[in-house]
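sorry to bug you again but im stuck and you know this stuff better than me. theres a chain ive been looking at and ive put its sequence and its fold in token form underneath. id like you to explain what the token line says about the fold, in plain words if possible. anything you notice is useful, everything is just below.
___
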Amino acid sequence: MHRFFWMILIILNWKSAYGQITDKQSEKASMVIGKWLSKSTGHYDFHSATTVNPLRAGSKFFGIPNIQMASDYGISYMDAPRDLDVTNAYKTIGADTSNMDTSLGLSRFHLNLGFGNKHDLTLSYLIPQVEGIKGWGAGYKRVISRDRYLFFTYRLNYSRSSREDYFTSISFTNDLSLSIYLRLIDIYIGLRHWSGNVKFYSTIPALELPEMDYISELHEIEHYVGVTAATTTNSRFTFELNSIGNQYALAGKLSLHFDSLFPTFNNWFRDPRYIKQ
């Protein structure tokens, strides 16, 4: 994967230096590539519309019940393929796409925290790999409405990602999702809107492109669908498909779930039917 990025960087410099493509063509191609990189490396929590702690607080005879908290610690892998538009953008700047990797493979650490039964805070960190991409993200999730097993949720996410001598990206997402929580399985769908900016870097200062802002139009709103299954009392596996451009990014996440903000060290591998909520 690392030769993929260095090859693109060298070709971008070479083509710009010799004027074989116009500035407008170069900027348009860079925008397409930049959106793909920004969206692929952005913050994902791979969690449904259901809150980390879906159990309602019980009533007390006197006073207000204690706030319920929960946590979910996980690791994920996502494969984000490049679509035809991204491939053509690379060709525009002179890349031989037949020798390029066809997707980005990204691993993340996750921490999802539940406060009460309506509010979640999510964090993610991109695990550095051979392609050298670094990044992190944070999100806030709030349940808008709930009807027994149905959850309707709004999410706001912020992300930063970069690769030294190649690009820096900042992105914001707003999404709405709906899930049906059946205790042992949680099925969800959602819509996501992106905005942000991307800056590419060149080894030749005169060839550095300006920072490019982007905001998704109505037809660019993306969707996702996923399912979370309880494999034991404290373990969960999530499978999710995210549309990125004209392709789908496939992701899997394994996590440990606790009915507290910090892990407990008992009954991790009990039958999932012991789950009370």
Observations:
- The CA atoms of residues 193 and 217 lie 8 Å apart.
- Residues 13-18 have pLDDT under 50 and may be disordered.
